[in-house]
Amino acid sequence: MEYITHFLDLFLHLDKYLSEVIQSYGYVTYLILFVIIFCETGLVVLPFLPGDSLLFAAGAFAAKGDFNIGLLFLILAVAAVLGDTVNYEIGRFFGPKIEKQEHNRFLNKEHVQRTHEFYEKYGAKTIIIARFIPIIRTFAPFVAGIGAMSYKKFLSYNVIGGLGWITLCMMGGYFFGNIEIVKKNFTLVILGIIFVSILPAIIEYLRYKLSSKPIK
After folding, report:
1. Which DSSP state fits 64?
2. Quick check: 137 pLDDT over 60?
3. In this model, does residue 1 exceed pLDDT 80?
4. 194-199 LR contacts (CB < 8 Å, sep 24+)
5. CA distance 92 to 95
6. Based on the number of CB atoms within 10 Å of its own CB, is 100 exposed (0-12), middle (13-18) or buried (19 or more)?
């Protein structure tokens, strides 16, 4: 039981334990990173997995020589694009049935509603913008599938958003992750990235709550 708990902790917080994973699993870490980025973007029930902070950490370790930066970029880019594609297909086939259900233990309908509102505001560009917003990032392709956005249109935004997300977050870690002050405060930096990542979602949530208050 303790081993399972430790494994789940590593899986859910890989950004904090990446050094330990690299030492223990070596090249298999590439596969582990692929799986987590794929699941975070591809499975609508797993929006809580690390995303931005994990990419930053991976970039920082690539700068130290623990990863081949070109191979790492290719693997993570494929994971991001493929994940959104799978999520889109899940939304297209199962979304309408799930939306009709009043309660669903696996799907937070409030998150789906907030993503719908993002589409109303930003249109198809939501696929790109959502890449940089946790929770919305996971639900955007799912809602695109529900809304029957053409796959050709979705794919173009998916590729642009996926490559942009991987490039900015991972290369940010590659160029800045090993600066002395960043290295000495790496945990704080990761926490800062997480906070900055969720800040737009917090702002949108507060705006949603304030706008939904009844006028007295």
Report:
1. T
2. yes
3. no
4. 194/52, 194/53, 197/51, 197/52, 197/53, 197/132, 197/133, 197/134, 198/133, 198/134, 198/135
5. 6
6. exposed
Higher pLDDT, 157 or 114: 157
Measure the N-to-C terminal CA separation of the chain; round to a whole number of Å: 53
Domain range list for the chain: 2-210
Identify the DSSP state of 46.
-
| Cα–Cα distance list, 67 to 8, 131, 211 (Å) | 23, 23, 46
- Residue pair 149/118 in contact (Cβ under 8 Å)? The answer is no
pLDDT per residue as tens digits for the range 27-45: 999 999 999 999 989 888 7
Structure tokens of 25? Answer: 């699993």
- CA dist 86 and 190 (Å) reads 28
> How far apart, in whole angstroms, are the C-alpha atoms of residue 51 and residue 61?
16
Averaged over 129-150, what is the pLDDT? 82
Residue 137 CB-half CA count within 13 A: 27
CB hemisphere CA count around 92 (13 angstroms):
13
User: 111: closest CA among 207, 42, 205?
Assistant: 205
Q: pLDDT tens digit string along 152-202?
A: 888 999 999 999 999 988 988 888 877 777 666 666 666 676 666 666 656
> Residue 214 carries which DSSP code?
P
What's the CA gap between 12 and 29, in Å, rounded?
A: 14
